[in-house]
Amino acid sequence: MRFHGGNERAKIDFSVNLNPIGPPPRAYEIATNCLKGGVLERYPDYNYRNLKRAISEFYKFDGASLVPTAGGGEAINLAIFAFKPRRIAIVEPSYGEYEDLARALGIEYSPIFYRRDSKGFYLELSDLESTCKREDALIVITNPNNPLGLYVDRRRIYESLSRCEAKVMVDEAYRELCNRCYIEIDRDLPENFIVVRSISKWLSLPGLRIGFLYARDGELVEKIEAIRQPWNIGGLSECIVSSLLSMEREMRDFIEESRMYIAREREKLERGLRSLGIKTYESAVNFILAESPYMKNIVFELEREGIAVRMCTSFKGLGEEYVRIGIRKSWENEKLLESLERAMKH
């Protein structure tokens, strides 16, 4: 069974990880202009030249090395299908689709877990050493991590894994919403690395489904392009995202505003959770990992009030005492704390 982050029955859904301030102010105006321009009445450009140009100019890298995709999920699938690894080492807990795809394709799945100490979770990159030596292997790291919210400095990852025989895929789906991260793609990305990004997440427009993949390995990029489905991104999505990214200053201001809002609301929510006796873990992004021995009952009481959080039972290494809580509007975060206070009394 596949788990996802949305709960359609919830009145307030903290199980999703979107940008809490919502889409950019001009998103709907741009969507209307795209529709008036007849974008639904013609096929998209198969090569997505405008979209590639907009992405490469916004993120400051060579557009010849990118593949636009229908969200980060398609980028992940394409990379695995193109590279055809015999082993996938996934740093867990992580996005469940990696393991699902590995098992479906008969690829050896090798979980590498975040370690824990009294301060919380941390990544020991030396644990990847055995897989690092295999040229038929793929190492997968989500950074910032979902569901932990932890960010590992990318230079540390490069220094440890750039000389690997294995390919290294870094899923950076939440990077634009991370207050410790810079936005640009590294032009000096190691040759054995693949970077995956989501654009629709930080735009808070998940219905558009747009992301991209970047690698300096030209042969791998050609293989990925060869298996990419024609017109994998709809014309309306391409038009909206290309237009938004072309407004570079406005979108960078939007990202900065989003990060400041997330940091402020995350701190308030963490403080409120701890005051209720719920343990929280350090996060750099738009969600919090929380722990309580009573979490199963707490979640039940929240659901009775129409509030959904993400139980972490489907994430390897975590159990029913953990939940992931997405940051939402300030009044919604306050409502959650009020409901949690009532739930703790049952």
Outline the fold blueprint.
Blueprint: E1 12-13, H1 27-36, H2 49-59, E2 66-69, H3 71-83, E3 87-92, H4 97-104, E4 108-113, E5 115-117, E6 120-122, H5 129-132, E7 137-142, H6 154-161, E8 167-171, E9 193-198, E10 211-215, H7 218-227, H8 235-246, H9 248-275, E11 279-280, E12 287-291, H10 295-304, E13 307-308, E14 310-311, E15 322-326, H11 330-343
Structural class based on helices, strands and sheet pairing? alpha/beta
Helix content: 25-40%
Tell me the fraction of residues in β-strands, as a range. 15-25%
Strand order of the largest sheet: 2-10-9-8-7-3-4
- Along the chain, the helix and strand elements come as EHHEHEHEEEHEHEEEHHHEEHEEEH
CATH superfamily of the largest domain: Type I PLP-dependent aspartate aminotransferase-like (Major domain)
Radius of gyration: 20 Å
Oligomeric form = single chain
The global form is globular
Give the structure's gist in a few sentences:
It comes from Fervidicoccus fontis. With 346 residues, this protein is an alpha/beta fold. The chain has helices at 27-36, 49-59, 71-83, 97-104, 129-132, 154-161, 218-227, 235-246, 248-275, 295-304, 330-343; strands at 12-13, 66-69, 87-92, 108-113, 115-117, 120-122, 137-142, 167-171, 193-198, 211-215, 279-280, 287-291, 307-308, 310-311, 322-326.
